[in-house]
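thread: overnight batch results

M.L. [08:02]
morning all. the overnight job finished for the chain we discussed friday. pasting input first so we're all looking at the same thing
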Amino acid sequence: MSKRNEQKKRLALCIDNAGCPVSLEVNKLYLALPDEAAERAGMVRVIDESGEDYLFPADCFVLLPQDALSLLRVPAYARRKVLKALEPA
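M.L. [08:03]
and the structure it wrote out:
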């Protein structure tokens, strides 16, 4: 994964899984992928429990700042591990 693509990805905290309980778990972090068209439509593209990316209503998530892991003082090597762990195998 290029550093540029890594910076565009964000962490999304699921706060509501109504209508998609199999795909999302409340209070779990997911990897949100950039998708400007989806954002304009009030949606967010997230890698869900299936390991695939799908669109979900944006109000199901709280998008964390792009630098959330660094704000939590997570070292760079650990940030990479967290982002890698959230990606599908």
